[in-house]
Amino acid sequence: MLQNNLNLCPECGNTNLISDSARGELICNVCGLVLSQKIIDSGPEWRAFSSEEANKKVRVGAPTTLTLHDKGLSTMIGWKNKDAFGKSISPKMKAEVYRLRKWHVRTRTNKSIDRNLAYAMNELDRFSSQLNLSKALKESAAHIYRKMAHKNLIRGRSIEAMLIASIYLSCRLNNIPKTLDDFIEFALVDKKKIARCYRLILIELKINIQVSSPINFIPRFCAELKLSGRTQNRAAELLKLAKKYHITAGKAPTGLAGAALYVAAIQEGERRTQKEISLAAGVTEATIRNRYKELVNHMRFESIDHI
User: CA 31, 32, 34, 40 torsion: positive or negative?
Assistant: First the structure.
């Protein structure tokens, strides 16, 4: 009688066991005892000689995702009016399949929350394409929006405003340098509505968000202004010193990042005008000028031409 422990040979006590997939047997490599037979092969019944061929033969569907209103779990009736052999179906069957297809689409979104999510997820795809958002960021935004939808807090509010607020919160949580102004260009709602929805999400989901660090905006602004890595590192050092001297408290991170870049570009010999930096940072020239003066006065830089 075999022992329940198949990792140990009951005859010689050896642990060096061999699994023969061709015969479906588990064999001891020392004494040759067959510990188990007729082992079920859980692998595929087909063979593949390349990764491309293996991918074509895989039968599992796409993984579940929050970016689809049904999480990708429902099925779709195809629009090709052909049978399993690839032959065209009769006109009578076409009418029947058309009716089935129509009711199938209706039953997928028979609830108001499903219709809401279907529209919102389509808009999420549009925003993600326009803003070049990553897949992980889309999933995070969809998760936040779904939470608000299940709390029944979308009703009476703009779906687009709530969706943009969810995307913006995802960016903040993942330290992505985005501001609300970056979304206004592609949105049909004003900034006040988006900000109101954003505050509502923070309150309802009890999220304690930290203020964005101006250092996160430095690489983005440097790329737009075509500045070197030396200037980027210098601006980051200036912002760290500014934080040490408590200059950053209560200031907009984009304005601080623009002012630090203005100073760093002068020191590294890659001077950019205040207008160029203000356009890249999305703030006014007066903001850049004021933050620049604060940096100069508090940190006592030398060899910089004062305005």
Answer: positive
